[in-house]
Amino acid sequence: MEKTWRWFGPNDKITLDMLRQIGVEGIVTALHHIPNGEVWSLEEVLKMKNFIEASGLRWSVVESLPVSESIKYGGADRDELIERYKESLRNLGKAGVTTICYNFMPVLDWARTDLDYPNPNGTTNLYFNLGEFAYFDIHILKREGAEKDYDAETLARMEELRKTMTPEGEKRLVENIIVKTQGFVNGNISENDLDPVQKFRDLLKLYDGIDAKQLRENMAYFLSAIMPVCREYDIKMCVHPDDPPRPILGLPRIVTCDADIEAFLNAVPDPHNGLTFCAGSLSAGAQNDVPALARKYADRTWFVHLRSTEVLPNGDFREASHLGGRADIVELVRIFQRVNPSLPMRVDHAELMLGDEKMGYNAGYSFHGRMKALGQVEGVMAAVDREISEEKK
Questions:
Q1: How far apart are CA 132 and CA 331, in angstroms?
Q2: Fewer CB within 10 Å, N or C, the chain?
Q3: 32 catalytic residue (yes or no)
Q4: pTM of the model
Q5: Average pLDDT over residues 19-44
Q6: Is 85 known to be catalytic?
């Protein structure tokens, strides 16, 4: 697979020269300076493409060309926003950047409660604590009826947490759940928002009455509208699975498991409608057999995120080593290398280590941690390539 790396543009502390030196071949990035819903002009697309190519790399994947909330919930202006989206796709197609990762998660992209969870080896990583998330939902967000979405064990954990919670602890949960994991990816909340909790409540209200069935219909409407442009320029749209793969905060999530993936692929049965196979997101759902999903959907997968998680009995999950956890990355490399050895792949959500914690990197996107993960995965790829060569003899 092609070794790619998520890079956040010219202001990223990790430079393209650094990435070339560690063996990265392709760049995964976006035009983060353009607001959601606005057209990516051909001029801006070419400016980014040329900047990347000047460093001897290529712009392999767009992650992400954001889908506006109004498209997701079916607002009055969704057709106008879809037309702008199509224009951005045309400009990317004209520039030859034709793999587009996006998501259809309402309001919240990905969620963690702890961004610096200590590991036994002295590193830290991302963690999702269901009890803390319930506290945020019930006592900070104060979402009506939220208690019904959690089991008795989780509510008991939340009540124990409530006894020792401080204002600083509540602020940390707000920052971790709706600010620090969102603002650097054209998210709905930024660090400049004076009242992020109220803004978040307002966003949730937009989805009143939107259930999973309606959200699926809205996704199919969007995909059907853009497929003619995708066919014209051979653009591969690859949706990112929901993270975590479960309904949260009263919002439906529709890319969480085998049945969900099959449903959206069948709803718009065009090969340009495909999947970003995020092994981390999928492995965070105890319901998912990740290698089995890879075997089933490899021929509709256009981008791969290799990371892994460990799911705990109480509903928590944590990022695992790229050679550990539930995802079985060794087997995933075997599957994808055989089906399409040119697939772009990137490692993801690695440890903070060797001074990463002092650099102010975006949550989940350390340098040394991802460099270690890339080295691990590159070794797996080399071993699998040897296996495949031996099989052909």
A1: 33
A2: C
A3: no
A4: 0.95
A5: 97
A6: no
